[in-house]
Amino acid sequence: MTDIRSRRQRAIAEMLREGPVRSQDDSAGFTVTQATVSRDLEQIGAVKVKRGGALGYSLPEQMGGSDWAAGRLQRIFAEWVHSVEPAGSLIVLKTPPGSAHLVALALDQARLSEIAGTIAGDDTLFVAVSNSASLEDVAERLQSLTRAY
């Protein structure tokens, strides 16, 4: 990570810790594009949340830890995952175009012990299941999240 990117991301995280940030327009005094701010928000784990009737960005640490990650995972799966299919030693998740990375990030942040890792494309996500877990059981659990919220 470059020094400028690191400083920018630390500044954005500090802004989020200080209070609600309602849009990506405030880039902490750095000259950047909206796409850069979006990438920075994703890389630091910031998510859009609704508080007091208004949408804003928050960091996972502001959301209550693993309870937040589990609830977020359920909401994201219910809204964004169209299908869950075991395929060989992986589980393939289908999402709308441009959404696979959102689901991958939610899975990574939930830190499920049965998931070794994720790889996201545009509308397809591959989930590697850890050796100690049953592929079918994990696929069934993920499928249940698509209708849990």
Description:
With 149 residues, the protein is of the alpha+beta class. A 4-stranded antiparallel sheet has the order 3-4-6-5, with helices on one face. It folds into 2 domains: 3-62, Arc Repressor Mutant, subunit A (Orthogonal Bundle), CATH 1.10.10.10; 65-145, Gyrase A, domain 2. The mean pLDDT is 81. The chain has 5 helices and 6 strands. Helix 3 (65-80) packs antiparallel against helix 4. Helices cover 43% and strands 21% of the residues.
Topology diagram in text:
Blueprint: H1 3-18, H2 34-43, E1 47-51, E2 54-58, H3 65-80, E3 83-87, E4 90-94, H4 100-110, E5 115-120, E6 124-129, H5 135-145
Antiparallel strand pairs: 1-2, 3-4, 4-6, 5-6
Helix pairs in contact: 3-4
Structural class: alpha+beta
Question: Main β-sheet, in a few words?
Answer: 4 strands, antiparallel
- Count all strands and give the number: 6
Described by the principal axes of the CA atoms, the overall outline is elongated
Query: Secondary-structure element sequence?
Result: HHEEHEEHEEH
- Over the alpha carbons, how many angstroms does the gyration radius reach? 16 Å
CATH architectural type of the largest domain: 2-Layer Sandwich
Query: What is the first-to-last residue Cα distance?
Result: 36 Å
Strand content: 15-25%
Mean pLDDT across the residues is 81
- As laid out across the biggest beta sheet, the strand order is 3-4-6-5
User: Any low-confidence stretches, pLDDT <50, length ≥5?
Assistant: none
Count the DSSP helices.
5
The level 1 CATH classification of the largest domain is Alpha Beta
Helix content: 40-55%
CATH topology of the largest domain: Gyrase A, domain 2
Domains, number: 2
